[in-house]
Design brief:
elongated, 158 residues, alpha+beta, 7 strands
């Protein structure tokens, strides 16, 4: 049984000078979710764009929900625009699908594989998306090699 989604409207806010956006969660996360820290959620913006992320306290009075550039682009919205949000707590295990060619590369590089497996879901997702977004096969190959180098160098994300 899924609990009822929490729904609210919010203004998309800019994070300082960065091209980063968030909306404020207008309720007490502690009362709603019985948690103080970060809360994994599934959100639907404007009834059309789905997003898995986290409510977090970032030097703010209330919890906030980040909005990626991709989500804003799909919505056709930017800083200062109003958005409707429907969210539920996300209790599903977060896993990243890894294509066979990338898995084979990790098997040849056990140290990189171990480091990758210790990364957060978000960082793993960034690396895999970066490789899969390559339009040409040679770009994909170059990115796979670069990913292994970056992971071995301790870089958490792309």
């Amino acid at each position: 049984m899924n609990p009822q989604p929490i729904q609210f409207k919010a203004i998309i806010q800019q994070n300082g000078e960065m091209n980063a956006a968030f909306v404020e969660f207008p309720f007490s996360a502690e009362e709603v979710f019985n948690k103080k820290g970060q809360i994994k959620i599934r959100a639907i913006f404007d009834q059309k764009v789905e997003y898995r992320g986290s409510l977090a306290k970032m030097n703010s009075d209330c919890h906030i929900l980040g909005m990626t550039q991709e989500v804003r682009k799909q919505l056709g919205k930017t800083f200062g625009d109003e958005v409707s949000v429907s969210l539920t707590e996300d209790k599903e295990e977060r896993t990243v699908e890894i294509a066979d060619d990338i898995a084979a590369l990790f098997n040849e590089n056990p140290e990189a594989k171990t480091s990758f497996e210790k990364m957060s879901y978000t960082h793993k997702k960034e690396y895999i998306r970066w490789i899969e977004d390559a339009k040409k096969p040679e770009t994909r190959e170059n990115r796979k090699v670069k990913m292994i180098q970056m992971i071995l160098a301790g870089k958490k994300g792309v």
